[in-house]
Amino acid sequence: MNFSSKLLENAVAEFAKLPGVGQKTALRLVLHLLNQDKEEVQKFSGAISTLRNEIRFCEVCHNISDQQVCEICSSHKRDLSMICVVEDTRDVMAIENTSQYNGVYHVLGGLISPMDGVGPSDLQVDSLVERLKNDEVKEVIFALSATMEGDTTIFYLHKKLKQFNISISTIARGIAFGGELEYVDEITLGRSIATRVPYENSLSR
């Protein structure tokens, strides 16, 4: 792609680094910004800069937060006896949109994937174990994507957590194998949470 300006080319190259954004889409976004008032563009760039510099991760569940402890973990309306284990923040948002779950979360920050060099030590596993030492927790729900990496992670976590006197369940497989939570419709995901099954039962299927 030929550019009439090096500044334009550099901006397009940066936008094209975003996931799912090719050069043509990046060019369209950059040209759109050029047509906006300078104040609007500064507001846009300022929001991104502030996000990157000031964002925090909840000290309890590791979800993205503005405070040391996120609104979900600090809410008196949430059921602290249930912890839903998810891969990342997108999954928290997807489950929250179903309005079918009132417990709290634990964000692993990824899935075990030897092919990608991601092992248990790269995830927030130890902090999950520490949370279960609190007798208040009665159930852990695995809400991980129905993929090989998701199943591997669940299997590993189950072995780590079965020492505790808690119920361990996994969301019902109304989700096709290979599916990721963030792309599942809210009704299907909500039903999967509501009709969760003991993890041991899922192993025998």
Automatic annotation (TrEMBL):
Domain Toprim: 81-176
Source species, domain of life: Bacteria
Organism: Mucilaginibacter panaciglaebae
Zinc finger (C4-type): 58-73
Matches recorded under Pfam families: RecR_C (PF21175), RecR_HhH (PF21176), RecR_ZnF (PF02132), Toprim_4 (PF13662)
Function: May play a role in DNA repair. It seems to be involved in an RecBC-independent recombinational process of DNA repair. It may act with RecF and RecO.
Keywords of the record: DNA damage, DNA recombination, DNA repair, Metal-binding, Zinc, Zinc-finger
Family: Belongs to the RecR family.
Statement: the UniProt record of this protein carries the keyword Lyase: no
UniProt name for this protein: Recombination protein RecR
Keyword DNA damage assigned: yes
Gene name of this polypeptide: recR
InterPro entries: DNA_Rcmb_RecR (IPR000093), Rcmb_RecR (IPR023627), Rcmb_RecR_Znf (IPR015967), TOPRIM_dom (IPR006171), TOPRIM_RecR (IPR034137)
